[in-house]
Amino acid sequence: MARWVAGMATLALAVTACGGTGDDADSPTDGSAKGAPIIIGMDEDSTGPGASYSTIAGKTIRLAVQDINDKGGVLGRPLRLVIENDESDPTKVPAVLQKLHSQGAKALFLQSGSAAVMQAKSTLTQLGLPAIAPTGVTATLVEPPDNELIYMLANTTTDWAEVYCGAFKAANINTLGILTDDTTTIAALNKALLGGMSCVKITATEKGAANASDLSAQVARLKDANPDAVLVTSVGGAFEVLAQNTLAAQLKDKLRFSLASIGNQPSSWKLANPGALEGLIFMGSINQDNPRTKALTELLKKANGPDYEVTAYDAEGWDAVQLLKLAIEKAGGPDDPKKLNEAIQSISGYQASFGQGNFTLSFSATKHLGADGPCGLSLIEFGADNRPKGPWATFQPPCSS
Predict the structure, then answer these.
(1) Which of 31, 63, 97, 383 has an alpha carbon within 20 to 30 A of 43's alpha carbon?
(2) H or E segment and range at residue 69
(3) What is the CA radius of gyration of the chain?
(4) Which Pfam family is one of those matched by this entry (predicted)?
(5) What digits encode the pLDDT tens for the residues 276-288?
(6) Distance of alpha carbon 373 from the chain centroid
């Protein structure tokens, strides 16, 4: 997911790529901050299966860094990003993180697929670098072993399962069909998510290649299984559009659910057939009743144009940078990784720019998942114009900590 404001560099950010390409023109400038740069590493999948969402968050991370630098930096020092690309390939992660460390990174953003981030955990322990996975949603990312230095913001698949189950109960859905892609990221997510949904009977599971050009056979088999509803689990992009086009044509009377992917990828909406997304319900996090969401929306539209669609990936990327800034300030600087890690763990009640209005993020030595309660989530329904029209009237998660 990406499109971004770039800063031309005076003191440019070194953008390199492992298996991808980098461009210094996308680097935030140091702005008005004049001290020695604080180097932050970002492992961003910009060319692999996770690129459809990683680049959106990555673009906003760049903007957040630029915004901080324009306002004087952190403790008078500018933030500077160094960027590598692991293509969501777990085998490339150790080398990517080692390279970021060698470039002087004091902390990391892990903006990649879940399987790749999982692989990062042991390497973080070896390097001693704290890291935030802005858009991670798999709870195992922050669970032992090797979880001492890794943090997440968003509600996990455990909360997703609870919310979906509430939705299924409210809509009298007892049986469910699954249409999924074949990526390692979704395989890991399915294991966590579907394993937590004992509230419904899964009567059929169909899989297609992420680069599939035809899913009609899979959807025909789902139709034969006759579930009450269908859930699509994918990284989004072309697969999700194809899935929804096919489902709309063959199973137009079935209630459809999806992950956050499709709702957070505005570039995909116009690729769907007219009306193909109508009635589709996805797991969202953007709620304009949240004043921080509204403020971020104004900033992003100013930076990217009035038609820019703000996503959860934008908000999570933005908040990840603000949280790291806060931690560096609490630690008195970035150079002692132990103090920096303890500073992250001391953050409590941070008011997020996603979720419902009273949604907050907190961390501790034993709580590396920031979300305070399920109200970081909303079920959002698409309208006839293939655009989200607002919260699904049938069910919304309660906002209680």
Answers:
(1) 31
(2) helix 51-70
(3) 20
(4) Peripla_BP_6
(5) 999 999 999 998 8
(6) 18
